[in-house]
Amino acid sequence: MSHETVGSLLAVIANSLNDALRIMMFADKRAWGSDEFEQLRLLEETLDEAKKDFQELPALVNGRFYYENDRINESLEDLRILCTRFELHAQTFKDWVRSGGALDPSWARDSVVLRRDLHRAQCRAARRIHAAQQVETAAAGTLRCLGALQVARVQQKKNVRVEEERLACAQTGRFERLGEHDVAFVCDFCDGFLVWKDLRAVPTMRVQQPAHADDEPASAMSTTPAMAQESGSNGTANDNAGTPASANWQARGVSMTSGEPKTIVFAPVAVANHLPPDLGEWQSRIVCPLCDEYYYEEQGEDDMERVKYAQDDRGFDSIAAFQEHLEWSHTSMVPAASNCGVM
Length: 343
Fold this sequence. Notes:
4-stranded antiparallel beta sheet, 3-stranded antiparallel beta sheet
């Protein structure tokens, strides 16, 4: 219907959740067991997360006005389906109160699935608004996924901690096993997959973690000393080329097939630089954050001119291709192997 917006459909979903919560909260709890209390907790957490997303996501797309009044067809269709599912879920509890008896434990699983799907629907709606705004403003350059930009902003902070990077990734998507040997990150904003081949588990630390001001003296804080000295006949790095978080990209994982240690791209570095999948594709491509900030010098009319390097806007088609590029093109930014600590 023409009057429907993202905001109005989210309000319908919120009403269904509130109906289910009221039924559970005012029900006779004298005969309740663990299943009933767990169901109440899940409904409360689903509503709290939905409210949190509704408050935080509009800030990513220039304000609540754009978010609440959005009418992009794909977002409305996602939310219409969720409206029906939440209404049916609330009706389940109304029928349960009328008929009495024990609560079905499978309803808790339904609540978990609905909570996850609602979070992803809100993220996707924000991503579509962001993409439309970039097109309207004719923004130049590579259009990273909105979820990637959130992780990248965290990495750009001074003395960012790895825990902050991991939290940003958790708020952007989830890791899951893909097949028997691979691990994938699935973005909630663009539904793109980033796949690490032949990996037992995702490492939670880099090979060499940066020091912080409250842990080490200032002289020991540099993670990649080569960055400050990098120069050559073919080009020079920008003073802010990459960030310590993006330049320090190595992590140590374990092969699923052989059990041997292997070097991989640290997950937050890949997540922070992924693009939405191309139409009809499921894997996200990745752009290099170090090439983004790389400059070279060429002869101008009078003096040498500093020119920004233009990388392929389409990026790399896999984590393996991205890692190969980092190893061959940015080796001077990699900490010496002899100084690396193995997790």
